[in-house]
Amino acid sequence: MTTAQTEEPTRRKPLRLWPGVVLVILQWLLRFVVPVVVPDALLYALIGGIFGGGLAIVLWWVFLSRAPWSERLGAIVLMIAGMFATKSIVHVSIATGAQGMLLYILAIPGLCLAFVAWAVATRNLSDGLRRATMVATILLACGAWALVQTGGFTAADLQHDLRWRWTQTPEERLVAQSGSLPPAPPPVRPVAETPAPAPEKPVMVESGAKSGKKSATLPLPPAGGVPEGAEAGAVWPGFRGPQRDGIVAGVQIKTDWATSPPVAMWRRPVGPGWSSFAVRGDLIYTQEQRGPEEVVACYKLTTGEPVWAHRDTARFWESNGGPGPRGTPTLSGGRVYTFGATGIVNALDASSGAVAWSRNAASETAMKTPQWGFASSPLVVGDLVIVGAAGRLVAYDLATGAPRWFGPSHGVSYSSPLLMTNEGVAQIVLLSQAGATSVALADGTLLWEHPWRGYPIVQPALTADGDILVAINESSGLRRLAVARGPGDGPGGWTVAERWTSNGLKPYFNDFVVHKGHAFGFDGSILSCIDLQDGKRKWKGGRYGNGQFVLLADQDLLLVLSEEGELALVRATPDPFTEPARLPAIEGKTWNHPALAGDVLLVRNGQEMAAFRLSLAGR
């Protein structure tokens, strides 16, 4: 008897799909939902959701999916090849964003979702059809990002302003408009430039330390650090107001915006940049980018009409923040002083825009343009104009532009110089990559240092009793320092003591204010109040993204401009968080500081600016 033996092919086990489905759901929840519910967890959600989630899905597919090994390994190789190939053809804003990681940040969640959806949808198809659709799915999920560009991100939630690659940017549309700015003012006879001294050897004029050098007659600023030489009639002479601290005195407004809302006076498009305003009389000044030209522009306060424009052939751009200058103009002595994103320092006639003098702080200090551009706003003190060329201060003669001194070099900084007077010694403080550094106003010699490494953006602030508050990165918190002159190990015989460091307020992208024994500012994207005695938090509330604000000191009131372009009022008291009013003002990502000239509030971002008239209390 012959037994017929037949061999049936071993039946393949079905794909194990449920782990992949669960993982991709968790990945998307972690990346997109958790940051909304817990804003402080944004960084962890970003790293965990994108890279952790992506790795988990790869491990599932390779070790748990039951797919044929040719598909398991082929899919991984194809994903890697697709990403690298796409990186070479995407728009430069995608290729360079987030320190070169933006494509992966944007594409990985979508690639994981598309891949898992493919595995579920094709589980019952033939091997050939499944593999063909797998290749198409992976290449489409990667290559689709070559069709878009980004206008940058919102700092609070890292959401990108995505648009089709072939569409014009707001800047391109603005440049295409003829006559949007007046012609450049006629050139004037330039002041003879004095050659810059070697940056390594500061020019000595006067020493605030124990150098024994003869003192020159440099005007001494008053205690508290109010700059000398403020422009007559300039109600808002520059960065963060009259004293560069974001505080407004003598103004009280109506807070019932349901019956007395801010009234729009005018709106107009503006070139990109993160400059704020300086205001004198009926003229306002700001900086913006117009194609290949960096522009200092003057407009009318009452109408928004352009008056004059000074142009430099210079352009700074990076993917995260976009193009344009970062610093705010400063008014003094009938001139407007500006510092551009590539290092150009200008002194212009405030009425006509005619050039008095121009320098290049980048080349004169031997400092490279930082990753996010030079971001210092000029500080005028006496007969000096001082800028922070990244982590190095440089002082120019106010009248002629001749370099007067150079401070020590301390790496990267996106902060602006602060004037303080301690025990009769005028000094300039700058936060930099190395920490806090103080130099003598007269000659730039080092007085004291407080090492605390970071990449500071915000301004330091002074307390009523002369201490200084500093913050150097997004997680450092706020630190209170006591500075004194006397026996010590500092370069000039100064001592710097840490009083406390508080995590109750972690200003990094947004500046903060000091008011009645408390500090008010952003802890991440949420407002917070801490007690200056011990650094303990009093309250935290209100989500405004990475916006900015000014303090109406007479009214204990914060006037907030959110990252989304909304205006809000928040009580600046240690009582629980209270928001009396909120309304929309301008559209688009808004990182610029607001400016207040009497009852006129000026706001802008990278594509629009507007003026609002506020209803004053008692009228």
Gross geometry: globular
Tell how many strands the DSSP assignment holds.
Answer: 37
Output the structural class: alpha+beta
- State mean pLDDT (0 to 100 scale): 88
Gyration radius from CA atoms, angstroms: 28 Å
How many helical stretches?
8
Strand order of the largest sheet: 3-31-32-33-34
How many angstroms separate the termini? 116 Å
Q: In percent, how helical is the residue content?
A: 10-25%
Low-confidence stretches: 1-9, 189-230
Largest sheet: 5 strands, mixed
Tell me the fraction of residues in β-strands, as a range: 25-35%
Summarize the structure.
The chain has 619 residues and is α+β, with helices and mostly antiparallel strands. It contains 8 helices and 37 strands.
Spell out the blueprint of helices and strands.
Layout: H1 18-37, H2 42-64, H3 69-87, H4 92-100, H5 102-121, H6 127-143, E1 148-153, E2 160-164, H7 170-176, E3 247-248, E4 263-269, E5 278-280, E6 283-290, E7 293-300, E8 306-313, E9 317-318, E10 322-323, E11 330-332, E12 335-339, E13 344-349, E14 355-360, H8 361-365, E15 379-381, E16 384-389, E17 392-397, E18 403-406, E19 418-422, E20 425-432, E21 435-440, E22 446-451, E23 461-462, E24 468-470, E25 478-485, E26 494-502, E27 513-515, E28 518-523, E29 526-531, E30 537-543, E31 548-552, E32 557-561, E33 566-571, E34 581-584, E35 595-597, E36 600-604, E37 608-613
Parallel strand pairs: 3-31
Antiparallel strand pairs: 1-2, 4-37, 5-6, 6-7, 7-8, 9-10, 11-12, 12-13, 13-14, 15-16, 16-17, 17-18, 19-20, 20-21, 21-22, 23-24, 24-25, 25-26, 27-28, 28-29, 29-30, 31-32, 32-33, 33-34, 35-36, 36-37
